[in-house]
């Protein structure tokens, strides 16, 4: 993938369109973010190297063998990222006979997450108490389901160490969550199956419960959406997610080990005693939001509120999660962060336009400004305002008319049957963000495939133009995405995993 500013200036005549200016690889020209919207797409453009991707059909489908990147080894304070449904996650290699989760189920869970996000952000009256209070006084508490956080299809995992001596645990990382938690013995009420043995605080020399009277206990309200409760003077947390998964347990501190040289004593986390949900064999969750209890905030003194990640090109390869600015590419292009008043810990972006095949789509700027946009590591499919999606779909279909169509797949309604092809050619898609930042989506981030007979455009419409748009993780693949929280900006660069 290349971050080229693609621009063609046209001279119109009655008989032809003449190129007055041409783009060459590696040279920066006027971005298509500024280009005039074209009413038609010239046939010659469909075959221009810079306006299309061409890839082998086999590249659309993940392998059954893990292809591990060496990028993690080259970076300081970096963790390997694996997909929880892919062969790089050890639990899946140990359970080969078990049928993997279907793509239809992943998309259903994805919609649950999106519904939860929209519930959080869709009504100003929800900007205060976001989930009600925890009424009961033990770890078997029931959490109100009406306004959960968003786990759904969050599907990327890193391994960290917890306790003294440290115990390695595989945790989902999520920019849409703040509280870090793991399942803990003795599992007073319930624990689901996870890859490693469940963490037992009795085996650690450094675990401590947080008292109900501590100000740290009060910090749970903003970080989980629920007021904390007490059990024998110990602070009890509770969090429920949009797909009805939940975790309830003791709020405590423990030593967190990210790498041999990155060790954090007194890290605030949840020690879950009642946990249920589809966490894909992970031991819990790492919260990478902007709330004071998130991992980002708790490690800010060392990492200066900066982290980055690269999500792998497929579920059979690996990426990285890096804390701090070590190894950040010089080619990163930044756009300012915006804030959602109802959920300030989320990472907001200002989209200014979308281009397909180098042509800016005729989408009024007000469509994006009225809905707002967030970037989210846990949402799979990018959601757009219906007006924007309709324009994207139309332009994409026009440039894909040579291929036979296929039935819709769940929320994805623009699908193709590529079974008769060895290679496919399709238009580039790029997003324009505030700050004159153009991000060209990698070729692996345009389709979502169940099989070669049903390969779908990996975008979907929201229910209404007023619903917040979401830049999902399929479109983030292979990019290095840098969250400079202190600087109030998010950056993008190509080739982040290799």
UniProtKB/TrEMBL annotation:
The active site is at residues 174, 376. The keyword Transmembrane does not apply. Keywords: Aspartyl protease, Disulfide bond, Hydrolase, Protease, Signal. The keyword Signal applies. Residues 156-493 form the Peptidase A1 domain. Pfam families: TAXi_C (PF14541), TAXi_N (PF14543). InterPro entries: Aspartic_peptidase_A1 (IPR001461), CND41-like (IPR033873), PEPTIDASE_A1 (IPR033121), Peptidase_aspartic_dom_sf (IPR021109), TAXi_C (IPR032799), TAXi_N (IPR032861). It comes from the Eukaryota. Residues 118-138 are annotated as: Disordered. GO terms for biological process: proteolysis. GO terms for molecular function: aspartic-type endopeptidase activity. Belongs to the peptidase A1 family. This is Peptidase A1 domain-containing protein.
């Amino acid at each position: 993938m290349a971050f080229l500013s693609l621009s063609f200036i046209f001279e119109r005549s009655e008989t032809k369109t003449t190129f007055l200016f041409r783009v060459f690889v590696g040279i920066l020209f006027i971005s298509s973010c500024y280009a005039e919207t074209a009413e038609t797409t010239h046939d010659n453009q469909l075959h221009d190297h810079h306006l299309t991707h061409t890839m082998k059909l086999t590249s659309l489908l993940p392998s059954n063998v893990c292809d591990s990147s060496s990028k993690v080894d080259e970076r300081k304070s970096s963790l390997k990222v694996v997909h929880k449904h892919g062969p790089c996650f050890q639990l899946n290699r140990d359970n080969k006979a078990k049928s993997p989760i279907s793509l239809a189920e992943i998309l259903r869970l994805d919609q649950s997450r999106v519904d939860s996000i929209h519930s959080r952000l869709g009504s100003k009256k929800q900007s205060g108490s976001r989930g009600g209070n925890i009424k009961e006084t033990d770890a078997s508490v029931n959490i109100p389901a009406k306004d959960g956080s968003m786990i759904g299809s969050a599907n990327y995992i890193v391994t960290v160490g917890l306790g003294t001596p440290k115990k390695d645990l595989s945790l989902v990382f999520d920019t849409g969550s703040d509280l870090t938690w793991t399942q803990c013995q003795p599992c007073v009420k319930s624990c689901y199956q996870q890859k490693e043995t469940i963490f037992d605080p009795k085996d650690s020399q450094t675990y401590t419960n947080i008292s109900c009277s501590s100000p740290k206990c009060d910090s749970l309200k903003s970080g989980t959406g629920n007021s904390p409760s007490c059990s024998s003077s110990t602070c009890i947390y509770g969090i429920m997610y949009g797909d009805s998964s939940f975790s309830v347990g003791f709020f405590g501190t423990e030593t967190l080990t990210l790498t041999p040289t990155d060790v954090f004593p007194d890290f605030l986390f949840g020690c879950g005693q009642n946990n249920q949900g589809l966490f894909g064999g992970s031991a819990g969750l790492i919260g990478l939001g902007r709330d004071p209890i998130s991992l980002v905030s708790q490690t800010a003194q060392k990492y200066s509120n900066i982290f980055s990640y690269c999500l792998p090109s497929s579920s059979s390869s690996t990426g990285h999660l890096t804390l701090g600015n070590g190894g950040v590419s010089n080619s990163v292009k930044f756009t300012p962060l915006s804030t959602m008043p109802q959920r300030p810990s989320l990472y907001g972006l200002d989209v200014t336009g979308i281009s397909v095949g180098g042509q800016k789509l005729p989408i009024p700027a007000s469509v994006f400004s009225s809905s707002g946009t967030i970037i989210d590591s846990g949402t799979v499919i990018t959601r757009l305002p219906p007006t924007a999606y309709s324009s994207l779909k139309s332009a994409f279909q026009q440039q894909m008319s040579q291929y036979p169509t296929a039935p819709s797949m769940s929320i994805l309604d623009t699908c193709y049957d590529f079974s008769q092809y060895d290679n496919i050619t399709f238009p580039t898609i790029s997003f324009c963000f505030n700050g004159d930042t153009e991000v060209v989506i990698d070729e692996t981030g345009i389709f979502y495939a169940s099989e070669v007979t049903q390969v779908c455009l990996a975008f979907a419409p929201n229910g209404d133009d007023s619903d917040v748009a979401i830049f999902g993780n399929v479109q983030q693949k292979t990019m290095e995405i840098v969250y400079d929280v202190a600087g109030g900006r998010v950056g993008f660069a190509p080739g982040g995993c290799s």
